[in-house]
Amino acid sequence: MLFVASVAYVLGVRRVRRRGETWPVLRTIGFFALGLLPYAVIELGFLGVYSPELRWAFSTRVALLIFAVPAGIAAGRPLDLVPSGIRERFLASKVTRIFGNAMVATVVIAAVFCLFLTPIAGILRVNPVVEASLGIVVPLVGLAMVLPMMALGAMHTGTFIAIEFLLAFVELLIDSVPGLLLRLNDGVLDLIPDAAQTAPWWPSLLHDQHLAGDMIWFIAEFADVPILVILMIRWMRSDRVEAKGFDDLSDEEYDEMTRAHLRGER
């Protein structure tokens, strides 16, 4: 996945520059340094290696893959490298519009975190095929929410974005619930027995679950900050677009629009 993503991005940048357009170097640095590099560290480092054995490594890995990696990749603006026709069809699709708002993102992320409270988390963790596929599926789910959220700002009204902004604050509370329940529960919820004690520092079964709850809680609360920043930027852009639309109206058009609004017409 790292190789495919790197090659696709470099070819996209080369295609843009061949058209005579400029592509900021900071975007390329952001894509690799904030997106692919953390992904490599997560998947090839401690979290990826010990994910099948340690609950806290597994939960931390999933939380970072759905939060941190998509946000870092989005900093490289990969959608801007896609041909305009394909990008417009992608953004205009119903699925993209559904996933491209904070309302759905709140529900999806809360649902993912709630899986850690069920035996499903244990099944996902100990099954080698499923556990390995999460390294691809989870970041794609995060990208399906983050990329449209950044690109669709001008297509949503200020009121819609304001509602999203309020829901993002609600998400700060919702996302903390699974972590708190994992931390406070005195029974092992995934029903998977302890792995072999491969090192002196290896946590007990229950302590492992408590660490998983701590990490989910911390990452979820910290990772909501970039989402709030994205929504604030979208709100500012939408406000500028709406203000420009009003400025372009003549006095007669503005008066007619005001009268139509007072009559309850759209």
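Second entry:
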Amino acid sequence: MSRALEVVATGPLALVQDLGRPGHAHLGVPPSGALDVPALRLANRLVGNPEGAAGIEALLGGLTVTARASCTVAVTGPPVAVAVDGRPAGSHVPVHLAAGQTLTIGRPDTGLRCYLAVSGGIDVEPELGSRSRDVLSEIGPPPLEPGDVMPLGAPAGIPDGADTVTAPPNPPALVVPVVLGPRDDWFGDAAHQLSVPWTVTSESNRVGLRLDGPALRRTGAREGEELPSEGVITGAIQVPPNGLPVVFLADHPTTGGYPVIAVVVPRALPALAQARPGTTIRFRPYA
């Protein structure tokens, strides 16, 4: 029997993701890849894969899959209930599935995105060197649907075998370090304006976190001024005309015409990937 997983249920959104396709911004293609990179890397280590193997990113859990062959799986991200044929199995540990067994991921109480890794990795056809789904450019395998059969590669190593790994916390409030610029001079006292509490809105997605709060004010000299499009990177905090910032995540556009007031320090991005609507964010200049 060929090695594969059959998708039974997907929850709100389930996507194939690896570590992305950086280096194609000149083609207008975002880096994409797992939003919570440490979670995917950990899941792959637990099942014996290289850290960059493709897995499944499940928004708010709800993913159910049936193994068509013997395999090892692991679920990481926020703490979440995991069951095999209805029996509790646990997250953040390697779990064996025999052919025909079904794994179900519940809905996490905190955080947004769970990651499922399978020994051998999800072996769909890569595009531009990656198996990741890019929701902006619509590159990569489409969102999973019930009935999809996902081929698996050959197992590459021995599962990590850790007895337990503590899931990271997903607090209701985050302090996020940023580097000011390149257009912080467009705003009066940019550090102070950014330091107020911001609330993650329900309009956020893999392209970016949309925030609500007191509108950021441009300096008088910049009022109504237009900015030629320029390159933007993951973590850039762009400020559209309404003054409400957007934090670009992995599927962001590669250029933008609104000023970028600051850029999130890369180590803070995984926490933003797990920030639910309603989460409070405070930005602090990185020293």
